[in-house]
Amino acid sequence: MTFANLRQNLDFLSTLKGVVTLLRDPTQTESVYDVEDGLRNTKATELAIEFVKSKPEVATIFQERYLAPSVNLEALLELPQESLGYAYASYIKEAGFDPNFYRLVKVEDDISYFLLRMRQTHDIWHIVAGFSTDVFGELGLKAFELAQTHRTMSAVLIAGGLLSTLFKHPEQLDNLLEQIASGYRLGAKAKPFFASKWEENWERPLLEWRQDLGIDVRERS
Predict the structure, then answer these.
(1) Which of 200, 210, 202 is nearest to 61 (CA)?
(2) Does residue 123 belong to any structural domain of this protein?
(3) Per the structure, how many domains does the chain have?
(4) Which of 10, 33, 142, 193 could form a disulfide with 154 if both were Cys (CB 3.0 to 4.6 A apart)?
(5) Average pLDDT of the residues in 52-67
(6) How far apart are CA 183 and CA 140, in angstroms?
(7) Per residue in 162-213, pLDDT tens?
(8) Nearest to residue 140, comparing CAs of 120, 169, 117, 165?
(9) In sequence order, what are the beta bridge partners of 205?
């Protein structure tokens, strides 16, 4: 067995382990990273990077390798209440989240940069796109991400969410499908979120961000 084949097998096992864990308990965040790390070296991930970089404004972010500094939540809470920064800090505080909870990735290439930046801005995407943090809200955001970036993990988690719902809560299938469909439609219509340097414009009103990016949360109601 070659090294490449061994790595593929290990990646597959990591992905499978993460998917099985999530099917049992969708709240296991670490398993999400197991899934994505296992998909890191696939052709699908390479194509996703090509797709997202096909937009010039996103390609520029990749060239810069833009990453934001650590967040000061208390400082953001001093901003106007209509600002993105205030909305973000309030969201993090009320949910009891750690803004630096995500699994770190050493940036060595376009794929590792993409993974780290997506993890760094996950909660910002939640707020701007208007998705809740329950399971259906997370899957709606994954559909939004899939439309915007073709992110492989998003497709896997949507598939896992559908299977889990079919087996555990089949009566909720219609609601989940609508959440996924509306998330995908919203992501397909919106301007690319990945191009945004949110952290350099925390004081900008959330409504202005949404208007500029083509987000109308009423379309999901």
Answers:
(1) 200
(2) yes
(3) 1
(4) 142
(5) 97
(6) 5
(7) 988 998 899 999 999 999 999 999 999 999 999 999 999 999 999 999 999 9
(8) 165
(9) 83
Q: Is residue 207 part of a domain?
A: yes
* Cα 2 to the center of its chain, rounded Å: 33
DSSP label of 72: -
CA 142 vs. chain centroid, Å, equals 6
Q: Which residue has the tokens 């990646």?
A: 11
At CB < 8 A and 24+ separation, what contacts does 52-58 make?
52/114, 52/148, 52/149, 52/150, 52/192, 52/194, 53/110, 55/192, 55/195, 57/192, 57/195, 58/192, 58/194, 58/195
Comparison of pLDDT for 209 and 98, the residue scoring more: 209
Residue 11 lies in a domain: no
For the segment 151-164, the average pLDDT, to the nearest whole number, is 89
For residue 59 the two structure tokens come to 């390609």
User: Rounded to an integer, what distance in angstroms lies between the CA atom of residue 87 and that of residue 194?
Assistant: 19
Domain that holds residue 175: 56-220
- Whose tokens are 């009320």? That residue is 94
- What is the pTM (predicted TM-score) of this model? 0.86
181 in any annotated domain:
yes
User: What tokens appear for 78 in the block?
Assistant: 């001093």
Cα 169 to Cα 101: distance, rounded to the nearest angstrom: 29
